[in-house]
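Entry 14. Ran structure prediction on the chain below.
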Amino acid sequence: MDAELFEILRRLRANAGDTVDIEAKAAVGGLPELTATICAFANLPGGGRIVLGLDERDGFRPSGLADVQALKQGLVGKARSIDPPVTLTFRQVNLDGNPVVIVTVSECPPSAKPAVVRSTGEAWLRGWDGDYRMSEVERQGFLSMREQPRADREPVPETSRADLDPRLTDIWHRTVEAFDASGLGRFPPEERLVRAGVVRADGLLSVAGLLALGVYPQQHMERLVINAAVLERSGARASQVRTITGPVPLMLEQALAWARSAFPHDVVADETGAVRDRPAYPLEAFRELISNALVHRDLHAWSQGRAIEVRLLPDRLVVHNPGGLYGVTVDRLGQPDVSSARNGRLVEICRYARTADDTRVVELLATGISTVRRTLAEAGLPAPEFSDSGIAFSVVLRQPKQGERSATDPSKAELTPVERALLSALGSQPATIHELLERTGRTAPALRKTLRRLREAGRVVQHGGRGLTTTYQSHSG
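Output, structure tokens:
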């Protein structure tokens, strides 16, 4: 079976329906209405794929397409009805002797977003549950992304140094002096606050300064909070409902306290025989996700009515953050030396912020997502699922299905068919990404994602680096 189609089928069946970046249609009666989907994929970071010839009602088995060329021409016409026009790429493959058309919808350039349907002026977004019309507030979010974000530098009216938390500020000064003595630490404390961007030259606090070190930032920015809750599967009942407020270091502490109380616990024995409580999700992974959400959420005016949302359901944990990724794509999250900060000033101030137990708020080593993946694998949990809509970012951590919890050592976890096929294509000799693309027929993003999983599991070694040819080799090769 074609490797790309195999991966599409795996995701569709695992999700029991369409995903955020894949839309499947049987298309046996002709081309369905897909204009909104094309527009939504054009606004989605990385674009998406429309698959014609798969019947969702029959477990995504082939439906049997009649006139493939007419379907392609119809899609091209719909793509041209979007402003700016959207680029489509077609691949036709066979499944059980039936044609299946894989249509890649390219992302619209960020400088031209949001893409709109020319005839109606409507813009569309893609979510886990399909396409939805973009609100005016969401349009403002896309427009704000056309320039370098600087919202964290903006002044907060009616604030002054008196709005800084004395304890947090004192800890921040001591940490600056300890770790940057010859740089920021060489300035007197009052001047240091100005040079770091905590206090502006006009005496007002910056958004970043208030969020990182303020006594109570929500006095001025009411919705810059975390809303956390435990939900029943139906979503109709909630418990452990909490609105978490305060400056970033205190919100991080309180979020972890909520997780310790809200997460179900298993009683397990470790390798020494000691019996311990194991939370449903690793607290280290949850901490990294909340830390990232706090410092990377969008701070522009359009998003200040939106909170960070944490929802614990029976089978999954969802963290939803206002503002999409900035300067990095989902498929590159967690890769070495890949780091980008939407709120550069806030991140730099938080570099020296500490919680009450003297732990860092941010680590700035671009290892947070790798830590999430590692700790989930060690706990026998599925890999995290990331979704970037451009103006919102979500992470889903799932519980394994009954009997599917993997070994605690990721190197001992069972390989998927796609991973086995890639290892077979790799063989015993080093190979470049271009050689693997030719051998497997997979797309570059899908191939890199599989290689990353195999590297994290210790089954593939990467050689080379900046300025050198990068090759991959089986660990046993």
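Residues 385 and 396 are 5 Å apart (CA to CA). Will compare against last week's run tomorrow.
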